[in-house]
Amino acid sequence: MNEMPTLSEPNATPGSAVKTAPQAADQPPGRAPGLLEQLQKPMSIAVIVLAVLLAAQSWSTSKQIRNLREEVAKRLQKGDVSNAETGVLARNVQEGTKELQIKVGALENRQSETQSQQLALEQLYNDLSKNRDEWALTEIEQVLSTASQQLQLAGNVPGALIALQNADRSLSRSDKPQFITIRRAIGRDMEKLKALPSVDSTGVALRLDAVIAQIDALPMLSDETPALPAAPEKPGKAKHVRDASGKLVGPPAPEPLLQKVRDGFNTWSGDMWDDVRQLIRIRRVDTPEALMLSPTQSYFLRENVKLRLLNARMALLSRNETAFRNDLIAAQDALAKYFDTRAKGTQTAQALLRQVQGSNLAIEMPTLSDSLTAVRNYKAKS
Q: I need a surface site. Which of 115, 224, 247, 363 has the fewest CB within 10 A?
């Protein structure tokens, strides 16, 4: 068994074969050559088969290794692509994370600023709500004080009512129960003003304006042609009338000639008498100085009467009863003394002045002390 590899070595030299020959000759003569030949054939076959198997195994192994390498290369390539994509995604995520961190930081800063601003606004709102009530009460006090002064000086009842209503509306916007006392006082003052008797100041002022507009057209006693009383209507021609049944009834039958002559004489004599009356007129004047006024004096007299009426109008608006009465009396005296009282325009002006004089301005105006006292007490407590 140990000599077989020596025989199979391809690089064996001739000297080694010579050396082995004597060894084979030393063996027994009938056994050595046949046994070697028998043993060499199966061994060569086994070696060949083993070599083939080893070659096939090596080829299969190399093929598997090559396939494995290709698959590993493909997977590595896919892994590289995935790693690259993963790296890109990781970088994008990192960049997005950085941006989000920046935004979160900005939002946190804004949140902190918003919280600080909210606190400042709450503090400011509290201050303003406190000051707003004070400002509103101060404004209401000023409005009520002005309305009270106008009520006492000019008797402006509608203006005082408007001021009280505005004050009550301003207080109604606040839900504070402390304002109930003030609103109750304002309600009492409003009831007092509504209970006052109404005075038609506008109607009285319009009547005074109508009289003032007529002064320049009223005839005076000093005029050259004073107005005469209206003459009675003369009988005219007979007209057609209707009876109870609705039929036209003609004029009466013609009168006799003697009646016509008599009517004609009466008409002629009446016209003649009217002409004579125009030539000679007798008037009774209680104030002779009224006939001696010059045109300039007449002009200033008219202006004086208009000024009296304007003063009466101003006294009406300011509720000055004494000045109102005095100016009206002075204007009426001037009309009766210097103007022709038989003229229709003068009579109309005197009638209007009598109506105006009948107006009652002596109304005691209430004060707004309840409302003012309630507002001032609340301001003093707060």
A: 224
Answer whether 162's CB lies under 8 Å from 335's CB: no
Distance CA 37, CA 47 (A): 15
What is the rounded distance in angstroms from the CA atom of residue 85 to the CA atom of residue 263? 141
Which residues, in sequence order, are CB contacts of 16 under 8 Å at separation 6+?
6
Radius of gyration of the chain (CA): 70
pLDDT above 50 (res 6)? no
Per residue in 167-222, pLDDT (tens digit) is 888 888 776 777 888 888 888 888 888 877 666 677 888 888 999 999 988 888 87
pLDDT in tens, 143-163: 888 888 777 776 677 788 888
The string of DSSP codes covering 293-347 is: --HHHHHHHHHHHHHHHHHHHHHHHTT-HHHHHHHHHHHHHHHHHHB-TTSHHHH
Rounded to 10 degrees, the C-alpha dihedral 204/207/209/215 comes to -140
d(CA 222, CA 294): 8
Question: Do residues 381 and 179 touch, judged by C-beta distance below 8 A?
Answer: no
Task: Enumerate the β-bridge partners of residue 248.
Answer: 242
By three-state DSSP, how is residue 242 classified?
strand
Amino acid sitting at position 181: T
Burial 73-86 (b: 16+ CB within 10 A, else e): eeeeeeeeeeeeee
| Rounded CA separation 229/341 (Å) | 10
Examine the pLDDT at 316 and tell me if it is beyond 90: no
